[in-house]
Specification:
Layout (H helix, E strand, L loop, with lengths): L3 H16 L3 H10 L6 H16 L1 H12 L8 H16 L5 H14 L6 H13 L9 H8 L4 H11 L1 H11 L5 E5 L6 H11 L4 E4 L6 E5 L15 E3 L2 H10 L6 E4 L6 H8 L3 E6 L2 H14 L4 E4 L13 E7 L14 H4 L2 H21 E11 L8 H10 L3 E3 L19 E4 L1 H4 L4 E8 L1
Parallel strand pairs: 5-6, 5-8, 6-7, 8-9
Antiparallel strand pairs: 1-3, 1-4, 2-3, 9-12, 10-12, 11-12
Helix pairs in contact: 1-2, 1-3, 1-5, 3-5, 4-5, 4-7, 5-6, 5-7, 6-7, 8-9, 9-10, 12-13
């Protein structure tokens, strides 16, 4: 029988490939279905899933050399198991080659793919003897395969950042992303939560965030829902960059505050914690139910509205002192955390999403009160999704202007500079998700 960790990883990877599932969500569901799973097995399953996805293009190149056939010709279940086996052979030194091959063959049998067991055995044995990832001569193609990022993305990043920093970005995306927690300051302090977490998880890497005073960074601590303080609402899972978006808006306590694209609710809850009288709006009812549940766990209050932010908003014009547009985007700033996104996005997606974002932004500006503030944010560093949207909306609306960020010690190196009221973060520079955000004011 295959190990529990590998069985879970195989199922999750198959769902990601076959059904378009998100790896993190599928893993969370898989772990919840096995409440007695040992921490060691959960850690290995997570490593196998995320590592295999991060290195998928390099794994396919190595497997195609060993198999002498394209991976695309194999059925999804077989392709998934071969990639997972190859990842253990090429990137996990602690796993003996014999164990990687044997476990993959056993998984073929356990998952109803017995007919492919011999093929998997032969391919992986050859790869174990000759662990080679063939790389192209062209520098950009070489980077694309070696770091498993689609060539169109590599070309964009090299053109914008140069080869050296684009390489660093790709390599950073292939390292484990820390879990970010936002401390609920209404129920405790960062220092007390850090102390409790370190005592409960002495083998994990736990420390304060680099920029946000509410941020804690974790590696190897296991599922956040099993950490001390979760049930008491002492924290919410949120990347440090997302926390800084809330700080960029910083609603005055008691002020009308609208989050136009609220799901899954992290930023809405943060704005409520900061004191805003928050309306959380989203198109998906089930996601708003989850957001409200999170708010209740944290001891916060949200008013929820189901509505399409790209259409006329269900609030009066000029009624909100603070508006957040956390717009749907490519998510390319979160590739480190969600490695499957790099293979799902296509160049044409950026123009399509930019049009959707601008439509939402136009609707949102109507809700901003005189003297009110709007913050626009996407978890992407692609220019057409970020600062280009500010330039487009300011060119259309003469009564809006760029507005400086609030005074905040943690902003050093992240906001303003040559641009007023702009917050940009990069994984390779700041150790957090890639975000593009700006702040504008009416009047």
């Amino acid at each position: 029988m295959p190990s529990p960790a590998r069985a879970i990883a195989a199922e999750v990877l198959t769902r990601v490939e076959r059904d378009g599932a998100y790896a993190s969500i599928a893993l969370e569901a898989a772990f919840a279905a096995v409440p007695g799973l040992e921490a060691r097995d959960a850690g290995l399953a997570s490593e196998l899933v995320h590592g295999t996805l991060r290195r998928q293009m390099a794994l396919d190149a190595a497997l195609e050399r060993a198999a002498e056939r394209p991976m695309a010709r194999l059925e999804i279940g077989v392709r998934t198991l071969l990639r997972m086996g190859a990842y253990q052979l090429l990137y996990l030194d602690r796993v003996p080659a014999r164990a990687a091959v044997h476990e993959t063959v056993e998984l073929c049998k356990a998952r109803g793919l017995t007919r492919a067991a011999g093929l998997a055995n032969a391919i992986l044995r050859r790869l174990a003897r000759e662990p080679i990832v063939p790389l192209p001569e062209d520098p950009l193609e070489r980077l694309s395969v070696s770091e498993s990022h689609p060539l169109w993305l590599v070309r964009r990043w090299v053109e914008r950042l140069g080869l050296e920093e684009a390489t660093l970005l790709c390599r950073t995306n292939n390292t484990p992303a820390p879990v970010g927690l936002r401390v609920n300051l209404r129920r405790g302090t960062r220092e007390s939560l850090l102390e409790a977490l370190r005592a409960a998880r002495p083998d994990a890497t736990i420390g304060p965030g680099r920029f946000a005073a509410t941020s804690i960074s974790l590696l190897g601590a296991g599922p956040p829902s099993r950490l001390p303080g979760y049930g008491q609402g002492l924290f919410q899972v949120q990347d440090e960059a997302a926390q800084l978006v809330g700080q960029l808006l910083s609603p005055v306590p008691g002020s009308p505050t609208l989050d136009t694209c609220a799901a899954p609710g992290g930023k809405s809850c943060h704005l409520a914690e900061l004191g805003g009288d928050v309306i959380a709006m989203d198109l998906a009812l089930r996601k708003l139910v989850r957001a409200r549940s999170e708010a209740e766990r944290l001891g916060l209050s949200l008013r929820c509205l189901v509505a399409d932010a790209a259409k006329a908003l269900p609030v009066p014009d000029r009624s909100q002192d603070y508006v957040l547009v956390d717009a749907p985007c490519s998510g390319l700033g979160t590739v480190r955390r969600h490695p499957e996104l790099r293979y799902r996005r296509q160049p044409e997606d950026l123009a399509r999403l930019a049009d959707l974002q601008l439509g939402i932004l136009r609707q949102a500006t109507r809700a901003v009160a005189p003297g009110g503030v709007l913050v626009y944010s996407v978890c992407s560093n692609e220019p057409e999704e970020g600062l280009a949207q500010r330039d487009r909306i300011l060119a259309e609306l003469s009564d809006f202007r760029a507005d400086p960020a609030p005074s905040f010690e943690g902003w050093a190196g992240l906001v303003d500079g040559a641009e007023v009221g702009v917050f940009l973060s990069w994984p390779q520079r700041h150790g957090m998700d890639g975000f593009s955000s700006f702040r504008i004011r009416r009047g």
